[in-house]
Amino acid sequence: MTANKTFLGSVHRNQPEQYEAPAGAILTPGMLAISSGGELIPHNTAGAGGFVYVAKELTANFAPGGGVNEDYAVGDTAQAYIPESGLMFRMLVATGQTVLLDSPLVSNGAGLLRVLDPAAVTPEVAVCYADESVTTSATTAVRVKFK
Are 24 and 36 in contact (CB under 8 A)? Predict the structure, then answer.
């Protein structure tokens, strides 16, 4: 079953805090995003962390899938969640990843997540951790948690 929302829990909160800004690039719900120059853009530094956001599904368009499969166009007012410890989201993981439960995930430099490479020349910063095991043959929405 595919969820029609990005935020997946906790039962103690209806929604985490959100950030809203013009989209400075095409953003897909579930992407890892940052704020740059007052705009939301896909996280653009592979292996790096920082203050990140999770692009939120489009909620104002009443799409059959809940807007989770519809991109924000450049200039649209984009919404993103501000993740904090203990929260779970459905986020996009790049193609060709073998994700195991609790795998540390990092930015791939294009707004998607990938599995941390412990042999990377430059140390990588885990952004979140997988909450399920999956092998991606395409960009795949994966349940993740922030610690």
Answer: yes
Structure tokens at 37: 């120059």
The answer, yes or no, to whether residue 117 has pLDDT greater than 90, is yes
pLDDT tens digit string along 2-13?
567 888 875 566
The candidate with the shortest Cα–Cα distance to 143, out of 81, 101, 96, 106, is 101
CA angle, 144 as apex, 78 and 68 as ends, to 5°? 35
Strand partners, 45: none
Q: Which residues pair with 88 in a beta bridge?
A: 145
Residues in the chain, how many? Answer: 147
Question: What share of residues in the chain are helix, strand, coil (percent, to 5)?
Answer: 0, 35, 65
Amino acid at 49: G
Q: What is the pTM of this model?
A: 0.91
Distance set, CA 139 to CA 35, 68, 114, 119, 142 (Å): 23, 14, 10, 23, 9
Which residues are paired to 142 by β-bridges? 91
Mean pLDDT of the chain: 91
